[in-house]
Amino acid sequence: MFRSRSLLLALLLLPLFPAPSALAHGSHGGGGEDALEAGEFDFTPLITVEAHGGFDTNLEDSPKHYAVDALFGGVFEWGLGNGGSLSIEAAVGPTLVWGEAEHFYGKVHADHDEHEGEEHDEHEGEEHDDHDHDDHADHDDDHDDHDHGEHAHEGHDHGHGDTDFQRADVRGYLQVRYAPNDRLSFSVDWKPYFVTEDQGDDVQGLKNEIGAKVLWALGDGDVNFGLGDGLEDLVNGVFLSVEHRQGWESDGVWIGNYTDPRVGVGFTIGSDQINVSIEAGPRFYTPGSYSGLDQRTDFAGEIELLVPVGDANLFAHWQPTYSGTDAPGWGEGWQHHIGTGMSFTF
């Protein structure tokens, strides 16, 4: 039962943010639950509902976005012996959007005034040699149409500060994870997100995000402060991880990539098995060429809580990220992502 709950948590969290590292290693031997025997197969159908929000306080006028997701999927897992396993996790479902849709970390909003100036200079240079007043009049008309057509979508309404309900999108998740033993795992994943219509900065189409992660648990993961463990026992819950991710917007623009090396610790509290995971580390970020920004190093972390309630799991998480770079379309300060919800089998 506990192993099934851990698998449930993994699928619940992974479609929405990086894998819960402490529980990822705990679901395959750490924490005392039984691993699958060699050749044994298990399938767990899952439903996850989460309400979550993003707060970009480092950007001008501190834009916010909110969503409610309902994901339906499951986990296929095969035992490999010696505590190892191979799993395939997948989920898909609707997401209700308030404000902007979620976007890949580091997305820079284009500055309308700068873009408009570039377009104007381009048009002016092309038409300047003609010196024809009619042509110039036509050019002005064309320029006005261009501004109020194409630019209206891109520049006049970024949706910043507008947190009204917008639409229903569709999100999905697919991950393959290989664990040769109960302390080491390798995974790759794909997170597609379909924007159903043009609104503000959101362009109809398919966003894509891919990632790869290596996780190494230094201890056995069996730390429970309700069973007499002390702070010195936290070493058993320490883990290291390295994750790399890349993202594309729905118009095909490559937003960038980042690599997160992290150190974390996971433990449980009390007989109710309240799971806590804390991790943090630098974020080496490379923006896409569209942004005009240089590489930088940010800071990223995460705190997660999981409370088993019968066959379900209540969860909450907070992901703070800090950037010390102040540049056009990007600002120095914090971004936050928080969420809470429930997952259960059916």
What does this structure look like?
The chain is α+β, with helices and mostly antiparallel strands and 346 residues long. The chain is 17% helix and 49% strand. The protein has helices spanning 2-13, 21-26, 112-127, 133-156, and strands at 41-56, 64-81, 84-99, 165-179, 184-190, 193-195, 205-217, 238-248, 254-269, 274-287, 296-309, 312-323, 333-345. Strands 1, 2, 3, 4, 5, 6, 7, 8, 9, 10, 11, 12 and 13 form a 13-stranded antiparallel sheet that branches. The chain starts with a helix and ends with a strand. 38% of the residues are buried. Residues 1-32, 112-131, 136-140 and 142-159 have low confidence and may be disordered.
Short description:
This protein has helices at residues 2-13, 21-26, 112-127, 133-156; strands spanning 41-56, 64-81, 84-99, 165-179, 184-190, 193-195, 205-217, 238-248, 254-269, 274-287, 296-309, 312-323, 333-345. The longest helix is centred in the middle third of the chain and has 24 residues, at 133-156.
